[in-house]
User: Which sequence fits this backbone?
């Protein structure tokens, strides 16, 4: 096997990827920029729920921290894992290459101003996350063996049925499940494996690396590692993520801070560039709309507010109060986008690598930013990115599995067939180029928001009533 095999795999799958992408990201023109309808769909929902719940993301932020720290934990409560384990499991699905490669893509396309739009999107996305996670926990199903199934598939089917719309609920749940399975293969799998392998190649010599053109080999190794972890289900995933996520997050943020603080005098200028670019009319980045669209797309892809994936990870939390679980999820967009993505963005902006990037994008651009100060850092970044990728892979395997079993049942054959297919896509993802992978990743994950947000509009009034009835 060699590079020609990688090219054949990419050529075979690219037409399918492009067709799905063109459908999901259909757009309209506004002031010279293409605005995807799906981005407006998510933005409107974020704004609506923030005002509908009277800026709950600010009012209950302190309680969110208390829930995450275990103040309301009780081993006797129904569920499989602790609040913190569910939080880290969800975070391992969001803190990943979207924070490293995705941010670089946003700045390359929309300029430094994309950082500001990412932060604003995350702020309004907090309440959207709260609603979907609360509903996912409220309508979860606890099976006879103690395992839990939750998330959008459950509140769409059961919640809408309770509202008198059983057929609509069944259709939306099925549509969501199909999209989620596709998303688990794409953004939660192929994109992660692809970018992790590219960084390993970069750290071992780039075009001269002995691994160059051998994406299938890197993908096979990732598949073996992930395969051993996902066999144990959510309990195994929770035990891994509660240790791995804090560790890799701290290591990465500290690395960014080393560069940012060593250039302390450049911080004001970098912030000026962010605000100037966010509201400029520079044609090279598409002006205000170009910067906004790039930032919003990467923020949503990174923290997944409104997508409906996170409720699947939060549903197994041991709790008798679905609102507590929902409030804890307010922290997710803050940690993921406001902190980690901003650290990446500031590092890229301060080093200036985005201005003369020689056509490179994604993780390679972020790597070049670090390398400009630490020549040895690409090797460290390769390890960090591999850990990020593995953590995201294992969480998205769980997301996809919950939706797969919703469609095909809970039999052992069903479970293991999904895991085998999932691991096969890990190998495929490592063998495709970034353009094809990122387009397919974005389209499948964004498609999940279509049925999910429809359900949120129908069911959010119930959560508002619960806030009045349940003492917090």
Assistant:
């Amino acid at each position: 096997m060699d590079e020609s095999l990688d090219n054949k795999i990419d050529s075979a799958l690219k037409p399918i990827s492009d067709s799905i992408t063109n459908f999901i990201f259909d757009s309209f023109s506004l002031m010279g920029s293409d605005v995807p309808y799906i981005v407006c769909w998510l933005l409107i929902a974020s704004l609506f729920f923030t005002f509908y719940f009277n800026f709950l993301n600010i009012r209950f932020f302190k309680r969110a921290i208390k829930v995450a720290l275990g103040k309301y934990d009780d081993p006797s409560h129904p569920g499989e894992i602790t609040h913190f384990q569910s939080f880290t499991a969800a975070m391992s699905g969001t803190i990943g290459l979207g924070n490293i490669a995705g941010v670089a893509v946003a700045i390359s396309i929309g300029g430094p101003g994309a950082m500001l739009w990412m932060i604003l999107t995350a702020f309004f996305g907090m309440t959207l996350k709260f609603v979907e996670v609360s509903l996912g926990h409220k309508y979860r199903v606890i099976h006879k063996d103690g395992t839990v199934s939750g998330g959008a598939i459950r509140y769409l089917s059961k919640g809408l049925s309770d509202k008198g719309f059983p057929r609509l609920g069944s259709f939306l749940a099925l549509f969501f499940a199909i999209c989620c399975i596709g998303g688990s293969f794409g953004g939660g799998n192929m994109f992660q494996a692809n970018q992790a392998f590219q960084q390993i190649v970069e750290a071992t010599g780039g075009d001269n690396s002995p691994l160059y053109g051998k994406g299938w080999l890197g993908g096979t190794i990732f598949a073996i590692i992930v395969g051993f972890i996902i066999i144990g289900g959510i309990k195994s995933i929770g035990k891994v993520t509660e240790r791995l996520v804090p560790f890799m997050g701290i290591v990465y943020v500290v690395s960014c801070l080393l560069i940012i603080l060593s250039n302390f005098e450049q911080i004001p200028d970098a912030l000026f560039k962010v605000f100037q670019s966010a509201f400029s009319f520079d044609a090279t980045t598409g002006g205000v709309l170009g910067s906004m669209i790039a930032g919003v797309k990467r923020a949503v892809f990174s923290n997944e507010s409104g997508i409906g994936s996170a409720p699947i990870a939060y549903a197994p939390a041991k709790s008798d109060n679905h609102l507590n679980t929902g409030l804890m999820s307010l922290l997710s967009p803050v940690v993921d986008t406001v902190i980690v993505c901003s650290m990446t963005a500031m590092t890229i902006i301060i080093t200036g690598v985005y201005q003369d990037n020689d056509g490179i994008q994604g993780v390679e651009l972020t790597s070049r930013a670090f390398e400009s100060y630490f020549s040895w850092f690409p090797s460290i970044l390769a390890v960090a990115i591999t850990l990020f990728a593995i953590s995201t892979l294992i969480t998205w395997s769980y997301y996809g599995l919950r939706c797969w079993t919703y469609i095909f049942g809970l039999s052992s054959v069903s479970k293991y067939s999904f895991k085998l297919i999932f691991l096969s896509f890990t190998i495929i993802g490592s063998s495709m180029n970034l353009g094809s992978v990122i387009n397919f990743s974005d389209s499948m994950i964004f498609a999940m928001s279509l049925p999910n947000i429809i359900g949120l509009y129908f069911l959010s009034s119930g959560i508002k009533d619960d806030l009045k009835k349940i003492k917090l």
About this structure: Strands lie at 27-30, 33-36, 141-142, 148-149. The two ends are 59 Å apart (CA to CA). Residues 331 and 419 are 30 Å apart (CA to CA).
